[in-house]
Amino acid sequence: MPKGYTRTDRIAEQIQREVAQLLRLDVKDPRVRMITLTGVEVTKDYSHAKLFYTALEGEKAAVQQGLERASGYLRSQLAHAMKLRIMPQLHFIYDPSIERGAHLSQLIDQAVASDKTSHSPSIAPLDFLPKEGVDDHSLLAGNVVVKDVSRS
Description:
GMP Synthetase, Chain A, domain 3
């Protein structure tokens, strides 16, 4: 087994799978709908587990309260599903990385759009090129002449 893949990593992945399934199928609290678990970190002594989540809908505080209220039930169901001597206490932490990624993507899209409108195209139309610039090493494509500079 690879050195970087420890037992705590395997337990964290199993906890993530089990809790995601329990949240989807068993927990009936409307505050914890549309939740995605983005990661789990388990301490070396297995006493605590940080579960990182994102919520697609709902207020962050209400979702956090719903998860904290369901944590005892989730821990007991995990104890039945996983055979561990110590079942970790579950601590839910909101993960803003999805929102941050969407915001950065939006900023990049805005920058690209503003760049397109502020700069002129780098390829000149055929009407503005001198006739002597077109030789056998140039390619004529529609209204644009593309010169092959590798042969010059």
